[in-house]
């Protein structure tokens, strides 16, 4: 039995091994013929293993102001890395890896602002762990062109750069809450708020791709079978913001912030005829290029409702005129007032004393709470007044094309609330709601929808994809009512009894407007804040008064006032500086005699002129130009021949041998004009006026050069004299 088993086993094992061989051979034969394993193509897998594939990011669209000035754009920065694998060097005479770690660390330390030992440790760690390359952390990322060139000049082997796009905001602290911010998610720039967030899909575009075959050292093969799918770049977005008007606003806001240290500030400038937002700003703000600690993420102009204070009397007045109950000569008893059915006695802002028996016109000029309350409750009537407030859309959002708009609360249930809303207490509204309602006052009764996106444009073809137009969204009052309202509001500024007299006057333009002093609830106590500085001071103004071109709202919360100052000091400083200069910049004809006549001249022809002769011509015209360079011939001028300008405007004359001018004490807008004139790559820190520049005066200068400037606010600034301000 044992003998038979012994003889049989080799036969069994032979059969088993034969079957296994046939199975394996069959499998190999199948793979050879079919070219796949478990449904996976062997050829495709091999190609994939030796093929590099990269995404080609689409260029994110640029955000421009109304005149084509870039406000947010893609900017190339560089990421440094070092190759530490010796095998990458094929010719010892020209090494391609880091050969001298000590020298490399020593040279890079100061440029990257890193500790030399830290750099050495990273390089040595890469060598010890058989890594092909290493990086140096955050300090080696987002390097600018100047840093890259400085490192390249060291001629250290093994150092290489990767280009990376980031979002760059050329103007720094400039409409930051409006333009918005971006973040990087999976190496893609994504908008997270403001216009960047709202228009993210349009701005982003569609990424492309590139693939090619490579060797073990990641180098392309001679026949790399390269496939390129071009990206579709994002669309460009043009805003209604005007860079010059916005810069005027930012400069004024920064000066007030520096001097008065308010807890909040808001301001907005709008075209009265179209509803286009020309400028919008908030404080605290932030620099999107260098966030640091952000004190306020909200665009308060659209997102933070507040009690409007006496600026609300503009619409109480308009309602009274529209309903035919306004009699400017009729008298009433000022001081205190208690509406029928109300348990609350309201008083005028001068400690409830009032001014005796005065006319309703004087009551509006003096910003009498009693005048507004009696007009709303007794003359117009609670039911009709509510209808008029709703006609001004105080019960709904404006629909402005910005994310995060909030709606205020029209509180109108009880007689005390129906009275208090007439003079701006109890109910809350956003500044943009007030601005929208004011367009009806400034535009013959037609109320316009505010908007900030002018158009979107194809980044590559420049074809206009969509275009916004002015939109009339209601007519709460007649054209006659609007004009009468403007006439009364002008007396708030011109009358000696007006709360805006000698405070909001402009040199060359008449103003119609209304001051405001509003309470706010203290977040800690839940009660109205008390104290001399515990208010929101504001002004809603339009100019020229007879037919307004611009509307502006400014509010300043909790400014630190001197004993001799009223709350209008910081508000009027912003309003007067921005409104006066904006109207002049927009070539709006003055409607009153200027205190100083402004001479208008034309830029003379400069082609072929000598520098000396041309500068003499300009000085004869009353223009003191900034001459760039010491060449004998004029190379170009920042204004075309025949351009009309005032002697107060800045003229740059570039000679045929450019040298750096002394920029000390230049205003920020002059820095921007200089940058645009010579296509310079300008970066800056701070705001106000230039104190330092990276290129010394008289040094050689070329178009496109990089220049860094530091700006500071001047120490102290004079404020206009105030009288008759609301307490």
Structural overview:
Pathway: Cell wall biogenesis; peptidoglycan biosynthesis. Its EC number is 3.4.16.4. It is found in: Membrane. This is serine-type D-Ala-D-Ala carboxypeptidase. With 727 residues, this protein is α+β, with helices and mostly antiparallel strands. It folds into four domains: 48 residues; 186 residues, Penicillin-binding protein 2a (Domain 2), CATH 3.90.1310; 337 residues, 3-Layer(aba) Sandwich (Beta-lactamase); 113 residues, 2-Layer Sandwich (Trypsin Inhibitor V, Chain A), CATH 3.30.10.20. It is built from 20 helices and 33 strands. Strands 4, 5, 6, 7, 12, 20 and 21 form a seven-stranded mixed beta sheet that branches. A hairpin with a 6-residue loop joins β16 and β17. α3 packs across α4, α9 packs antiparallel against α18 and α11 packs across α17. The longest helix is centred in the first third of the chain and has 33 residues. The radius of gyration is 35 Å and the shape is globular.
- Percent of residues in helices comes to 25-40%
Supply the CATH architecture of the largest domain. 3-Layer(aba) Sandwich
Mean pLDDT: 85
CATH top-level class of the largest domain? Alpha Beta
Please, what is the CATH homologous superfamily of the largest domain?
DD-peptidase/beta-lactamase superfamily
Q: How would you classify the helix and strand content by structural class? A: alpha+beta
The counted number of beta strands is: 33
Gyration radius over CA: 35 Å
Distance between the termini: 124 Å
Keywords: Membrane, Transmembrane, Transmembrane helix
Transmembrane segments: 12-30
InterPro entries: Beta-lactam/transpept, Beta-lactam/transpept-like, PASTA_dom, PBP_dimer, PBP_dimer_sf, PCN-bd_Tpept
Subcellular location: Membrane
């Amino acid at each position: 039995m044992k003998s038979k088993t012994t003889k049989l086993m080799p036969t069994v094992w032979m059969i088993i091994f034969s079957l296994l061989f046939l199975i394996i051979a069959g499998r190999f034969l199948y793979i050879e013929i079919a070219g796949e394993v478990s449904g996976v193509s062997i050829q495709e897998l091999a190609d994939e293993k030796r093929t590099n594939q990269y995404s080609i990011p689409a260029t994110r669209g640029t955000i421009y102001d109304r005149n084509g000035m870039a406000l947010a754009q893609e900017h190339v920065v560089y990421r440094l890395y070092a190759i530490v694998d010796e095998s990458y060097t094929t010719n010892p005479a020209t090494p391609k890896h880091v050969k001298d770690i000590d020298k490399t660390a020593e040279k890079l330390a100061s440029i990257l602002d890193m500790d030399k030992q830290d750099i050495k440790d990273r390089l040595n760690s890469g060598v010890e762990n058989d890594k092909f390359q290493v990086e140096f952390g955050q300090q080696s990322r987002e390097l600018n062109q100047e840093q890259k060139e400085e490192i390249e000049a060291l001629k250290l082997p093994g150092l290489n750069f990767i280009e990376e796009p980031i979002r760059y905001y050329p103007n720094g602290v400039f409409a930051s809450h409006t333009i918005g911010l971006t973040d990087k998610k999976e190496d893609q720039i994504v908008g997270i708020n403001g216009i960047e967030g709202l228009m993210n899909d349009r701005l982003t575009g569609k990424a492309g791709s590139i693939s090619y075959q490579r060797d073990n050292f990641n180098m392309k093969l001679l026949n790399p079978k390269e496939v390129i799918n071009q990206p579709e770049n994002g669309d460009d977005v043009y805003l209604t913001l005007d860079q010059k008007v916005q810069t005027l606003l930012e400069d004024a806001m920064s000066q007030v912030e520096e001097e008065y240290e308010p807890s909040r500030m808001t301001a907005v400038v709008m075209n009265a005829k179209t509803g286009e937002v020309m400028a919008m700003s908030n404080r605290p703000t932030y620099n999107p290029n260098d966030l640091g600690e952000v004190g306020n993420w909200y665009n308060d102009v659209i997102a933070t409702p507040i009690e409007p204070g006496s600026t609300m009397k503009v619409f109480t007045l308009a309602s009274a005129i529209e309903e035919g109950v306004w009699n400017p000569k009729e008298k009433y008893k000022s001081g205190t007032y208690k509406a029928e059915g109300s348990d609350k006695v309201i008083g005028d802002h001068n400690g409830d004393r009032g001014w005796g028996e005065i006319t309703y016109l004087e009551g509006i000029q003096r910003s009498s709470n009693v005048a507004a309350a009696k007009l709303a409750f007794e003359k117009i009537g609670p039911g009709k007044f509510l209808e008029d407030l709703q006609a001004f859309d105080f019960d709904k959002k404006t629909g402005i094309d910005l994310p995060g708009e909030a709606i205020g609360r029209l509180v109108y249930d009880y007689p005390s609330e129906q009275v208090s809303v007439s003079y701006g207490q109890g109910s809350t509204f956003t500044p943009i709601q007030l601005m929208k309602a004011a367009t009806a006052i400034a535009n013959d009764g037609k109320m316009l929808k505010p908007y900030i996106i002018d158009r979107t444009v194809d980044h590559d073809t420049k074809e206009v994809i969509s275009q916004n137009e002015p939109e009339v969204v209601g007519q709460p009052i007649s054209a006659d009512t609007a004009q009468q309202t403007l006439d009364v509001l002008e007396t708030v500024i011109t009358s000696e009894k007006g709360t805006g007299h000698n405070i909001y006057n402009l040199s060359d333009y008449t103003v119609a407007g209304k001051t405001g002093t509003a309470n706010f609830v203290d977040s800690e106590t839940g009660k109205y804040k008390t104290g001399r500085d515990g208010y929101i001071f504001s002004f809603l103004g339009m100019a020229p008064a007879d037919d307004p071109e611009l509307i502006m709202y400014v509010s300043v919360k909790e400014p630190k006032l001197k004993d001799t100052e009223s709350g209008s000091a910081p508000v009027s400083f912003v309003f007067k500086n921005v409104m006066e200069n904006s109207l002049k910049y927009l070539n709006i004809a003055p409607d009153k005699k200027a205190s100083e006549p402004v001479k208008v001249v034309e830029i003379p022809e400069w082609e072929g002129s000598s520098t000396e002769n041309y500068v003499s011509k300009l000085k004869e015209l009353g223009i003191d130009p900034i001459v760039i360079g010491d060449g004998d011939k004029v190379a170009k001028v920042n204004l075309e021949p025949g351009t009309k300008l005032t002697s107060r405007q800045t003229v740059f004359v570039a000679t045929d041998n450019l040298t750096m001018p002394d920029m000390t004490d230049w205003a920020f807008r002059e820095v921007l004009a200089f940058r645009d004139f010579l296509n310079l790559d300008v970066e800056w820190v701070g705001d106000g006026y230039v104190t330092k520049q990276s290129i010394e005066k008289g040094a050689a200068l070329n178009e496109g050069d990089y220049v860094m400037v530091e700006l500071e606010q001047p120490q102290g600034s004079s404020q206009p004299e105030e009288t008759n301000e609301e307490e």
